[in-house]
Design a protein that fits this description.
This protein is mostly helical. It is built from 4 helices and no strands.
C-alpha cells in the first residue's frame, strides 16, 4: 500500500470518527501503548485492573525496564 492510499484511509477514518475513545485508562502516550499491548491478550476491564496497580509503580520505559520481568509479572498475571 502506497503513502497516498494510507493517507486516504486515515483521512476516511478521521472523518468517520473525529474523536476516537477507548475504555483503557491512561495518563500519557507510553501508558496507552502499554495498555494497548496488554489489551491484545485480555479485555479492557482486566487491563485497567492491572494498569491501575502497575502505572503508579512504573509508567515510563525506564521504570518498566528497571522493574524487570519478575517484578512486573504479578501485576499482569491475571491477564493471561
Amino acid at each position: 500500500m502506497n503513502k497516498a492510499k494510507r493517507t486516504a484511509m486515515f483521512e476516511t477514518w478521521r472523518a468517520a470518527n473525529p474523536k476516537p475513545t477507548t475504555e483503557l485508562e491512561y495518563a500519557n502516550a507510553f501508558e496507552l501503548l502499554i495498555a494497548v499491548i496488554l489489551s491484545a491478550q485480555a479485555t479492557d476491564v482486566s487491563v485497567n485492573l492491572a494498569t491501575q496497580k502497575l502505572f503508579p509503580v512504573a509508567n515510563t520505559p525506564e521504570a518498566i525496564a528497571a522493574l524487570g520481568v519478575t517484578v512486573i509479572t504479578p501485576f499482569i498475571r491475571h491477564i493471561g
